[in-house]
Amino acid sequence: MLQLCKSIRVAILGSLIFVAVISQAAPIQAALKAGAAKVDITNRDGLVNDPLHVRALVIDDGRQAVVILTLDVVSIGEIGHVKSDYLPKVRAQLKAELGIEPQNILVNTSHCHGIPVVDVDQRTVQAVREARQNMVPVTVGAGRGREERIMENRRLKLKNGKDADVRHAYSLPPDEEVVGVGPVDPDIGIVRIDKENGQTLAVLYQFACHPIMAVPNGGNTADITGFSSKVIEETLGGGAVALFLQGCGGDINPAFYKAVDYPRSAEPLGAMLGLSTLKALKEIKPSQNQQLKMINETLALPRRFDAPERLAAMQAEQTRLLQSLTGTSLNLKTFMPLAVKYNLNKDFPAYYSHSYLHEKMVGRDDLTHLDASNRRNMEAYIKNIQTMEQLTRIQTNMALVKKHQKTNEAAGKRTLEVEVVGLRIGDFVLATSPGEMVVQIGLNLKKASPHKLTFISGYTNGYIYYAPTTEQILSGEAQEDCDCLLAPEWQPLFEAKALDVLQRL
Questions:
Q1: What is the pLDDT of residues 129-188, one digit of tens each?
Q2: DSSP of 89-114, one letter per residue?
Q3: Residue 339, C-beta contacts closer than 8 angstroms, at least 6 positions apart
Q4: Cα 108 vs. chain centroid, distance in angstroms?
Q5: Coil, strand or helix at 180
Q6: At 327, is the secondary structure helix, strand, or coil?
Q7: By C-alpha distance, which of 472, 413, 407 is closest to 441?
Q8: How far is Cα 378 from Cα 383, in angstroms, rounded to an integer?
Q9: What pLDDT is recorded for position 143?
């Protein structure tokens, strides 16, 4: 009898093990429903190169509906063409019409400089409405791609320990003054959302880079990320929607942003980003983790009020530079041909070599003295030009400091309230801020996060200008450091809050 019971126990245990193995091998059942849609928001008053869109993804786990919106615009409020009342208007209408809670709506802008239509809010609601109507059972999988060819950090580290940045607003420092550059983040965070038949419904992909390369004809464009989404959508087919989330791209430029030897074009860069996303996408399979969770909390960040001291330091440097300017014999008309000649042949710049050899043979050195004089004059002229370039950078940054000083003083309080959103879709985890966060913030949080697939996005649920690191704000030399409302203490406060949100996802 004892032996029989033992045999029965073994048989039952074996059956349980068999059932467990079958269960693990079985296909993942759809625990979520999702729908996606995109609506054209292109302003067509002028030349249009390619369309701008609002893309909507609605995901529902039976307990809550989460809405993710991506816009091909520069920001929500403050700069660009989307007004500051956009987000409250969209949230109110979606609550009234579809019952979607305002805190469950995440809106990320690509930060392209395209021009949208006036009624972006109504077209956004239309996109969500269409996505909600098209919801089907789905499974999700997450992964990471890589792209390092299309971007570069625009902060340049100088010999004097300060920073400059790569912008069209002003010229760059001399090459010999540049000793290093800042980091980039090559990760592409990806969520793959598939229908039950295996067809991809939507792709959510996140990357850090300013999409500001523009196109050769100067037309309205969604820029790099508009082209990358197009590549993904057309390759997948079946009406798949590719939603781009901008990362911590505050100091990340397109590669060769200031090129002058060939037309600048966002399309090749966008194609590379799209193809790199697709390469990683094909390796992503549905995960056992089908969790959906969103956390939306408010954080008070300190405003900066030391503008008088900063402006005084800038003005002192401005005065020093102005006083260093000297009179020069040359002007642009005489400098340019001399610069060409003296760089073409350093040994015999003024005339042909035989004249130099003739003077040497007869004991004269008239041409040698002429060269020395010309070189001194060119050096003085170049020094003035470089001083002028420094002055333009200071002038630009002083205007930004004054602008944000007025804004902070007019606010009537010492803090700035922002939304910090945490989002989990399966194994994909995201934390956000409305600031144009520099890439180091994202790298810090990704390293500290307990989740393998962690990604950090700025430009979300509002806009508060640049958010550099504490160290960068205190240095105050790059434009991001001056185009900023935040006090240096903002970084540890935000990082602590974001990490807390990440740990609770």
A1: 999 999 999 999 999 999 999 999 999 999 988 898 999 988 888 999 999 999 999 999
A2: HHHHHHHHHH---GGGEEEEE-----
A3: 378
A4: 11
A5: strand
A6: coil
A7: 472
A8: 8
A9: 98
